[in-house]
User: What shape does this take?
Amino acid sequence: MKSWVAYTAGSCVLFSVAAVGGAISCASTSHEGQELADGAWVGGDAGDGGPGIVLAQDGEGTLGLESGGQPQGTGNCTALKRVCSSSCPDFPAAPLFDGPSDGGAPAAPANAASLFAGSDGTGPGPCIVEPVAGTLIPQNWLRPRFRVIPAAGQNVFQITLSSKRQANSYVVYTASDTWTMPKKDWDGLRGDSWGDEVTVTIRGVSSSGGTPTSSASSFTIAPASAGGSMIYWAATGDQNGLSWLEGFAPGDESVATTLEVSQVKLSNFRDQGGNLMPDGGAAECIGCHTAPPDGNSVTFLDFYPWPGAAALVNPDGGGGTGAVPSWLTGMGVTALSMPWLGVATFSKADWATEQVAVTSYGCAQPTVGIPSTYPWASGPSCSDQANSSLAWINLAVSGGVPEASSGYNLGEDIMANFGTSSAAFGFLERTGDSRGVEFPNWSHDGTTIVYVSTNAGKDGRIGLSSQDAGGGQFAPTAADLYTVPFNARKGGAATPVQGASDPTAYEYYPAFSEDDKLLAFDRASTYNATRGLYYNASSEVYVIPASGAASPTRVAANDPPACQGTLGSPGVTNSWPKWSPDVETCDDGNTYYWLVFSSTREGIPFDNPNGANFKNGGSPDGPTSQLYITGVTVSGGTIATHPALFIWNQGMKSASFGGNAQSNHTPIWEYVTIPLPPPPMQPK
Assistant: This one.
């Protein structure tokens, strides 16, 4: 546990925090002086990207460190010590009667305990949606939430938590289907009972009486933490123009608006002919995003024809949110704004010596030279990307000032140095693989790129196969993971990843773990007749050693609780897995990894805004996505997986569009400084 001493000086709260290494002065924040709920953020950071502060109500319990939207340092699980090893007092001896919740649910009735005096009946108990039995929770995660789908007639619930080191069982009575553990109790539990199974029993009954029924679950608090910031793509309505980025760090109980379209300062977006896009080349939407290793910014794709962009998300990073990063030169802007790009990827090791991105490029790599009109102006059409290439872009290449006039031929500017040591972009060879490229991911050590080898590239994603002369489209016949060496931008032999290049399945959306030892990816056996493999309901998350294996490991997090009533998996769009930027090997012999992914298992439909809010009209199809995390452990070479944990602090309604249901997906999880999220004013 981290030790704290808190002092007050008038209206200012001063903290001396051993874990931070010095005093934290009174934060400058618009939330000062407000009455905050137990567990709310009340302080700033240490001025160096350090953590903010969470204060327990009335000074009770243990004060805890939280990230406050800033990157949180990696934990040290081998040094983690228990405050108490047996008969611990973290769970209160007396039952807790839950009061009104944010949603206006009534308080637990005064006679709640008597309603559960009898034995359980044999009927179905409440469906426990959070936590799913066997869930693994990071040591520094936000306090756990317990959520049920009531059985018929049930409107009062008894929640009982037990753990072998705790002197008492924690008993809660509530009239809500959702209850969140108070922060001071969570801090005590995770300080003493990490590594132990916490059993959960939830009983339900009617407030008018009857026989209770029950269900059981469990969770374990890992000794390992998860740091960094999670930044995800949020959208309401259709995708064009109604998208933005939100973010938070582990422990945060609310999210920050990380980047909106209107904040993007870069305005060099052009069509495939080199003409400035509407509004003087201003950004129209925020598409697939990634984080360069500078810790301050993101890159993303704008609207059709998918030129790239970069913007600061650290409001104190120099120029404010949305500003152009200092490492992006004029020629770098020109190369990044080429049409038909896919999602970019970066390597921490390579970034230390050069600012290079690797991406898919929506035309076939030329065998001799490259025409001056290619692929701009009157060059060949590249929009189907069936033979897309693997390209690198030097974002910090010297020279070049983006021209503001319409009709500017991008090719003339960046072709002057093509093939030289001062080139703005070039191609990586993939000897042995003649198919197209999508969704490359670059290893953190800079040596290897994993990518999707496919004949179904479409606008930087994986759709249907290439069009024929008559405009027809066909089923994708290939989507397999291959690796190729970076080799100082030269590439080399392309090699299929054993266990992730099955010709009878589609494998895509690969991601290297922080230590480059594991790959996470999506796998599917069917495709969508309209979108191909993009946002495919049948997709599932798998994990495999980066060196390959006979077969991949299907993660348990794919499966929603059977009692939830939604479709089982495959069928709930488990997609876009990304790793936490932390890997810890602990004294229990396990190496801990964390994954975030999106899923439609909640079944929440889009609450469509009125027609005026749709850029191009129409309605979105399918349910919204939400984000989940899951733990992956490795011991003795054996990979073990765990059920999904719903991220309950993520944005679910968009204030920008009338409170309509939003969809959250394509997350990234990196050490990036983002705006502080607002403090939650009431516990959820």
User: Anything to note?
Assistant: The first strand starts at residue 4 and ends at 9. The radius of gyration is 26 Å. The longest helix spans residues 183-192.
